[in-house]
């Protein structure tokens, strides 16, 4: 199995603002743009995304678009999802259905998400985003805002939130 650094090098991955490494692999340039309340978006985009031992967390963030996550290689990933009504769902994306892993996970838009390596090492996934991803549609979680909105999940929020998100994050 390739090492994390081999994946980074061979796929041309770069650090991602939410944690881990990524590279956009597709956008539907041959299709008409989709009109959303927040502007024109590609119909579909996709990325490769990698979490590693040195960057094991995809910190709390929210996307307006729906995202499908596909596990390709390496350790399983645990996803923590907080829905707008405060309901928490946890799922493990990985290769072992006997351990309750799923190969594909759908995360609806407007659901807060944090991800972490479950077993160490690294994990390579792909994501398909519809309407296509735009940074204007992503909000990074702030601990004060998230714990005020979801106090029942305060401990989990603090565990996986960036302590100093860039300005403009919620």
Please give a handful of descriptors for the protein shown:
170 residues; mainly beta; Jelly Rolls; five-stranded antiparallel sheet; 3 helices; 43% strand; disordered C terminus; Cupin_DUF985; DUF985 domain-containing protein
Strand order of the largest sheet: 1-2-5-12-7-10
**Number of discrete helical segments:** 3
Distance between the termini: 38 Å
Structure class? mainly beta
General shape = globular
Strand fraction equals 35-45%
Radius of gyration: 16 Å
The helix fraction, in percent, is 10-25%
What is the string of SSEs from the N terminus onward? HEEEEEEEEEEEEEHH
Instruction: Characterize the biggest β-sheet.
Output: 6 strands, antiparallel
By DSSP, the count of extended strands is: 13
Instruction: Return the CATH topology.
Output: Jelly Rolls
**What is the annotated CATH architecture?**
Sandwich
In CATH terms, the superfamily is Jelly Rolls
Overview of the molecule:
The chain is mainly β and 170 residues long. It has one domain (4-137): Jelly Rolls. The chain is 13% helix and 43% strand. It has 3 helices and 13 strands. It has a 6-stranded antiparallel beta sheet with strand order 1-2-5-12-7-10, with helices on one face. A 5-stranded antiparallel beta sheet has the order 9-8-11-6-13, with no helix packed on it. A two-stranded antiparallel sheet has the order 3-4. The protein is globular. Residues 165-170 have low confidence and may be disordered.
